[in-house]
Amino acid sequence: MHTPTVTPLTTADAETLVAAARAAADAAGVPVSVTVLDAGGHLLAFRRDDRAVLISGETSTRKAYTALQLDAPTAGLVDLVKPDGPFHSLPTALDKPLLFIAGGVPVHRDGRPVGAIGVGGGTPDQDHGFATAALEALSR
């Protein structure tokens, strides 16, 4: 049986994602950090606006990593790690840089994950919006 090959996320794709997320954030007047990871969790692109809070660099990367590892937007995972949630112990049980705050979104091609984008610096809802705007730009 032949498994179709999925084109990996390229550096050019990563640059498109970063530029689109930053454009959306700039339009909202929000300084952000943006991280793009490939399917293996390796850094493809990173950009922190000069005025973005320093921790946003770390949060954008952890959001991207979490979205990639769980193949789901981090916005949909927040309730799962609350004290009564089924993944309550996940953030502390694993020695991994997981962060369950909205702003991380996996990137898919042909229904398969090829990477993820994470945005940090705005409110969780803003960061999620900037990340999804970047995905829309990539699919054009």
Describe the fold and architecture.
α1 packs across α4. The radius of gyration is 15 Å and the shape is globular. It is built from 4 helices and 4 strands; from the N terminus they run αββααββα. By secondary structure, the protein is α+β, with helices and mostly antiparallel strands. The protein has a 4-stranded antiparallel sheet with strand order 2-1-4-3. 39% of the residues lie in helices and 19% in strands.
Tags for this entry?
19% strand
**Mean pLDDT score, rounded?**
93
Question: Order of strands across the widest beta sheet?
Answer: 2-1-4-3
Strand content: 15-25%
Secondary-structure-based class equals alpha+beta
User: Helix proportion of residues, in percent?
Assistant: 25-40%
Outline type = globular
Could you give a short description of this structure?
The protein is of the alpha+beta class and 140 residues long.
Strand and helix map with partners:
Layout (H helix, E strand, L loop, with lengths): L10 H18 L4 E6 L4 E6 L6 H16 L19 H4 L10 E6 L2 E9 L3 H16 L1
Antiparallel strand pairs: 1-2, 1-4, 3-4
Helix pairs in contact: 1-4
